[in-house]
DNA sequence: GGAAATTTGTGCGTATGTATC
DNA sequence: CGATACATACGCACAAATTTC
């Protein structure tokens, strides 16, 4: 069993308390001295936990004043390794997915090109809704080549996780090759599914993921609710 | 003048040495003990600097083995993420800029915090319009601390380039600390300036740029017309 | 307005644990 | 196995910014 450092346990506790609403956006956390007493550790150990919350964008420290819980919208970090579940977990929110459709069908022109497949080759398509704390924050559609992953749809249904389903198919790791971003306004269908008004701002990302050999394995679109999500590109 | 912490100066030095190719991707950095001796500081101070490189994704530490350089030097200096930045604010592919306002005024709360200035400290503000083929594609506002750059407004007016104006003020190099992206809809004022309808989708980016000592020197917003621009983040 | 108390930030020193070589 | 190297944790002191009185 991996031993968990004390500072990590403290960070997890504080993240839980933020996620549960015990500390709300704008609230001041207890002082480092108070947290030291509460957890029975040195102030530096508390500071290590608070540093973690800070780099995750969950809190912000002001010298002389205190450490404050940041307000929404939630930052969603974008970079070489993007995992929706992991990101929102780190941000102290409860992630969930709802499957809308799972199907296998012939690829269209864009999909075949993005995945380097022959025109019309069979692909698996996974469409769903991402929620944080019960609120929809994004719609997504992931397209995978069907031939190398015969059982992917069943794995996706079971795990509800792209990472785990790909792992079951033997893909240990994958990285994002590119991300394109633009702004849109919500269509009527999107607005209904996301619980927003038609015409509300939407941040659309289009990404291609590669396995470690450089073979494209996922062509994904995500439509984020602009008012609920901020993407962060960390340099 | 803001005093730079020792660990930040050490982090900047190591980043320079990585960027210059003195340490190449895959290389092992000197041990913490060696770096402590070299810089004449405690090992914890070196660790604070290395922690910064780690969270920036430049290095990766392996317990018992060492600290290893991850990124290509080009990724840091002229690499993809920084090119992304240059495309945003430097108009690398945008043929024209139109200056809307150049002024010096007291900073608001957000600006002072982003630039690590005392509340209300004086800042230079550069607002303008970016055009491609005569069509407006983005509005931008860049905010700089006024005190270190007395002639910045004149330099901006002359060069119409942030990089060149900062170079004239003695800033040889600067890097983007973070970029945040979200979707908005155009306000009436923005719609008028950009030649679009009120409520049209807007991609907003917010970025903070640091000089090589880690001091924030630019706080920039850009509002892209969603229908006319797609941003690309290449990893 | 100013002094004092509070609170986070930086830095040093020490000791011990754990993974790698 | 021993030596090396990073990780964790405690303690102390002072600096810098804010808040309180």
Automatic annotation (TrEMBL), chains A, B:
Q: Does the keyword Transcription apply?
A: yes
Looking up PROSITE patterns in the UniProt record yields: HTH_GNTR (PS50949)
InterPro entries named in the record: Bact_HTH_transcr_reg, Chorismate_lyase_/UTRA_dom_sf, CP_lyase_PhnF, Tscrpt_reg_HTH_GntR, UTRA, WH-like_DNA-bd_sf, WH_DNA-bd_sf
One of the GO BP terms on file? negative regulation of DNA-templated transcription
**Domain HTH gntR-type positions:** 4-72
Provide the GO MF annotations for this entry. DNA binding; DNA-binding transcription factor activity
Under SUPFAM superfamilies, the record lists: Chorismate lyase-like, Winged helix' DNA-binding domain
Keyword Zinc on this protein?
no
**What superkingdom heads the lineage?**
Bacteria
Q: Which UniProt keywords apply?
A: DNA-binding, Transcription, Transcription regulation
A single Pfam family, by name? UTRA
The name this protein carries in UniProt is Phosphonate metabolism transcriptional regulator PhnF
Taxonomic lineage of the native organism: Bacteria, Pseudomonadati, Pseudomonadota, Alphaproteobacteria, Rhodobacterales
What is the name of the gene encoding this protein? phnF
């Amino acid at each position: 069993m991996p031993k968990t450092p004390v500072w990590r346990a403290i960070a997890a506790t504080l993240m839980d308390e933020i996620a549960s609403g015990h500390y709300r956006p704008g609230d001041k956390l207890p002082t480092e001295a108070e947290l030291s007493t509460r957890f029975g550790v040195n102030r530096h150990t508390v500071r290590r936990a608070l540093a973690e919350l800070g780099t995750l964008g969950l809190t912000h420290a002001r010298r002389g004043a205190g450490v404050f819980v940041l307000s929404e919208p939630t930052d969603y970090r974008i970079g070489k390794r993007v995992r929706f579940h992991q990101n929102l977990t780190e941000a102290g929110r409860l992630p969930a997915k709802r499957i809308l459709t799972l199907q296998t069908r012939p690829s269209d022109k864009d999909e075949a090109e993005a995945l380097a497949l022959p025109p019309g080759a069979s692909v698996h398509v996974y469409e769903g809704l991402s929620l944080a704390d019960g609120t929809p924050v994004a719609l997504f559609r992931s397209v995978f080549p069907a031939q190398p992953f015969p059982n992917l749809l069943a794995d996706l249904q079971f795990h509800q996780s792209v990472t785990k389903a790909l792992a079951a198919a033997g893909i240990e790791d994958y990285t994002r090759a590119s991300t394109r971003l633009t702004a849109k306004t919500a269509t009527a269908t999107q607005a209904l599914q996301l619980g927003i008004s038609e015409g509300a701002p939407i941040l659309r990302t289009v990404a291609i993921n590669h396995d470690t050999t450089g073979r494209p394995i996922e062509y994904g679109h995500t439509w984020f609710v602009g008012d609920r999500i901020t993407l962060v590109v960390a340099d």
